[in-house]
């Protein structure tokens, strides 16, 4: 009779739980990495598109301003197909035609993004028939 006991290696003794645990852990780490990268890219893209949000804010302020509504009438339609707020994320220079039920007008905005804040230099609506200039700088800040 042979009394020698063969000592098995760590892998031979523990492979039944180590293989599934290691494999699952690897898959989880890879999945979390992909999700984290996706969240980072989306957040980065949204940070770059703040001029889109500033543009939407400008249009909303114009359409809700009582002076503009009184001068142009409702609804106020913006007639411009050329402006793309994604073209320059740090600057907004626009001049757009506005069409209302009572009159037409021109929206002029000049703004610069400084330290993640928009600094508006010009934000006016000029009524075409009367030449009245409605200054909206106080509404935006």
Explain this structure.
The chain has 141 residues and is α+β, with helices and mostly antiparallel strands. The protein is 46% helix and 26% strand. The chain contains four helices and five strands. Strands 1-2-3-4-5 form a five-stranded antiparallel beta sheet. The model has no long low-confidence stretch (mean pLDDT 83).
Features:
141 residues; alpha+beta; single chain; 5-stranded antiparallel sheet; rod-shaped; 46% helix
Give a brief rundown of this model.
The protein is α+β, with helices and mostly antiparallel strands. The chain has helices at 10-48, 50-64, 66-72, 137-140, and strands at 77-79, 91-99, 104-114, 117-127, 133-135.
Major sheet: 5 strands, antiparallel
Shape: rod-shaped
- Overall pLDDT level: 83
The parts where pLDDT drops under 50 for at least 5 residues are none
What is the H-and-E element order?
A: HHHEEEEEH
Helix content: 40-55%
Taking the alpha carbons of the first and last residues, their distance comes to 94 Å
Strand order of the largest sheet: 1-2-3-4-5
Total helices: the number is 4
Number of strands: 5
Task: Describe the secondary structure blueprint for this structure.
Layout: H1 10-48, H2 50-64, H3 66-72, E1 77-79, E2 91-99, E3 104-114, E4 117-127, E5 133-135, H4 137-140
Antiparallel strand pairs: 1-2, 2-3, 3-4, 4-5
């Amino acid at each position: 009779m042979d009394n020698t006991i063969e000592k098995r290696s760590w892998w031979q003794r523990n492979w039944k739980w180590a293989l599934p645990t290691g494999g699952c852990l690897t898959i989880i780490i890879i999945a979390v990495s992909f999700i984290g990268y996706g969240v980072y890219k989306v957040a980065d893209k949204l940070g770059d598109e703040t001029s889109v949000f500033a543009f939407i804010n400008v249009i909303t302020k114009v359409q809700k301003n009582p002076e503009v509504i009184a001068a142009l009438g409702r609804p106020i339609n913006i007639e411009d197909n050329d402006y793309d707020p994604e073209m320059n994320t740090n600057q907004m220079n626009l001049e757009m035609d506005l069409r209302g039920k009572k009159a037409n007008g021109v929206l002029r905005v000049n703004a610069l993004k400084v330290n993640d804040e928009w600094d508006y230099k010009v934000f006016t609506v000029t009524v075409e028939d009367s030449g009245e200039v409605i200054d909206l700088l106080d509404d935006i800040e």
